[in-house]
């Protein structure tokens, strides 16, 4: 979800700034491009070297590079960002945000930012409770910024109370949820089938096909990126799914694929049937490995259930069902026939 997003991370002078290193790592791992602006006080708490190494970008603290005189354009930084996060936000910087004070690169970039701004305050409990801090919080909220509330717990001072900066993984989850709200497939459930099925002949042999599963896995990832809640029913493949939001169900045979697809289909808004399901399976499965014999050998095959058709038969009007067709002759006509026969909304024709 954060893949290729430009994130401007502002860091203020607080003990909690050590958590910014972990947050940076999590953002980069999620595929985001991260640029960091530190206040000069923040550099007393954590080094720019650590953060530039983790973010893979130079850390900026000044309006210009003292060596070259090059301008660190707060205007460009503000325009570059898809999201700005200030974590930790000190009481001091919060107050500057509330009053439009613009005396360093971070506050100037904040004023230039056109993107959503998320502020994760960190401070001692009495600083947090102070009416001026609370007024500033209300003010920055009224400008359209979002506060990621601090938690209750032990503070750097040794006191216990509210003021601990939200944990980096909570901030990451918060940002992901925020992005999800804006995605076109939010609140939609998607079901994807992928890969081949294996139909056993005996304990060591099977009838399968060359499907790699790559297409179905890519579709599942894309649907998830668009905000859908995705279930992926996968035949045997060597693929891994890196997106932890995708619920993967492993199956082997066409019968198992049918069972799982029938289980998830009724609650699915969008179903993409991409698996290469075997049309036939051996009539009976030998209990022991079949010994090599002289002469010819044949296996009786029986038809498997047509999963796409059985889902098409029970499809409701509010559901979308998409099939795939691999045709070698009369491609278009055959694909159109399949759409009608199986009550599909769309078909992807491979030839
Ligand atoms: C050890 C130490 C810890 C501090 N922790 C915090 C803090 O968690 N939150 C905060 O608002 N200020 C904290 N301060 C005070 C800020 O560093 C100070 O207000 C500073 O001017 C903030 O500057 P900045 O907003 O430009 O980063 C701390 C100061 C020290 C010396």
How would you summarize this macromolecular structure in one to three sentences?
This protein has helices spanning 18-29, 48-55, 74-80, 91-99, 105-112, 125-129, 131-142, 168-181, 214-225, 254-264, 307-314, 331-341, and strands spanning 6-11, 33-38, 83-89, 117-121, 146-147, 151-154, 160-164, 189-194, 199-200, 206-207, 229-234, 247-250, 270-273, 280-282, 301-303, 320-326, 346-350.
Main attributes?
351 residues, alpha/beta, Rossmann fold, six-stranded parallel sheet, five-stranded parallel sheet, 17 strands, 33% helix, elongated, binds flavin mononucleotide
**Biggest sheet record:** 6 strands, parallel
Helix content: 25-40%
H/E topology pattern: EHEHHEHHEHHEEEHEEEHEEHEEEHEHE
Instruction: Report the CATH superfamily of the largest domain.
Output: Flavin prenyltransferase-like
Strand content: 15-25%
Model description:
- The longest helix is centred in the middle third of the chain and has 14 residues, at 168-181.
- The protein has 2 domains: 6-181, Rossmann fold, CATH 3.40.50; 189-350, CoaB-like (Rossmann fold, 3-Layer(aba) Sandwich), CATH 3.40.50.
- The mean pLDDT is 94.
- It has helices at 18-29, 48-55, 74-80, 91-99, 105-112, 125-129, 131-142, 168-181, 214-225, 254-264, 307-314, 331-341, and strands spanning 6-11, 33-38, 83-89, 117-121, 146-147, 151-154, 160-164, 189-194, 199-200, 206-207, 229-234, 247-250, 270-273, 280-282, 301-303, 320-326, 346-350.
- The chain starts with 5 loop residues before the first strand and ends with a strand.
- With 351 residues, the chain is an alpha/beta fold.
- Helix 1 runs parallel beside helix 2 and helix 1 (18-29) crosses helix 8.
- Bound molecules: flavin mononucleotide (FMN).
- Residues 12-16, 39, 41-42, 90-93, 122-123, 127 line the site of flavin mononucleotide.
- Flavin mononucleotide is lined by residues 12-16, 39, 41-42, 90-93, 122-123, 127.
């Amino acid at each position: 979800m954060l893949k290729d997003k430009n994130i401007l991370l502002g860091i203020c002078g607080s003990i909690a700034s050590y958590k910014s290193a972990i947050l940076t790592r999590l953002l980069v791992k999620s595929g985001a491009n991260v640029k960091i602006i530190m206040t000069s006080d923040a550099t007393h708490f954590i080094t720019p070297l650590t953060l530039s190494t983790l973010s893979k970008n130079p850390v900026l603290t000044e309006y210009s590079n003292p060596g070259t005189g090059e301008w660190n354009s707060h205007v460009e930084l503000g325009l570059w960002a898809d999201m700005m996060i200030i974590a930790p936000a000190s009481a001091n910087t919060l107050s500057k945000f509330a009053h439009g004070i613009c005396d360093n690169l971070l506050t100037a970039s904040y004023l230039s930012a056109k993107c959503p701004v998320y502020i994760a305050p960190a401070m001692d409990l009495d600083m947090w409770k102070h009416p001026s801090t609370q007024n500033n919080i209300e003010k920055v909220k009224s400008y359209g910024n979002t506060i990621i509330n601090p938690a209750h717990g032990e503070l750097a001072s040794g006191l216990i109370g509210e003021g601990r900066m939200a944990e980096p993984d909570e901030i990451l989850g918060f940002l992901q949820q925020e992005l999800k709200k804006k995605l076109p497939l939010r609140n939609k459930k998607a079901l994807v089938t992928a890969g081949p099925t294996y139909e056993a002949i005996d304990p060591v042999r099977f009838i399968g096909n060359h499907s790699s599963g790559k297409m179905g896995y890519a579709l599942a990832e894309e649907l998830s990126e668009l905000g859908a809640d995705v279930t992926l029913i996968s035949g045997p493949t060597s693929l891994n799914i890196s997106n932890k939001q995708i619920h993967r169900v492993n199956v082997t045979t066409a019968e198992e694929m049918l069972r799982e697809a029938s289980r998830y289909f009724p609650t699915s808004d969008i179903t993409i049937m991409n698996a290469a399901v075997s049309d036939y399976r051996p009539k009976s499965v030998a209990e022991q490995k079949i010994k090599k014999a002289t002469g010819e050998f044949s296996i009786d095959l029986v038809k498997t259930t047509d999963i796409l058709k059985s889902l098409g038969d029970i499809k409701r009007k509010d559901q979308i069902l998409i099939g795939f067709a691999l045709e070698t002759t009369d491609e278009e006509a055959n694909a159109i026939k399949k759409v009608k026969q199986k009550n599909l909304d769309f078909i992807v024709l491979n030839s």
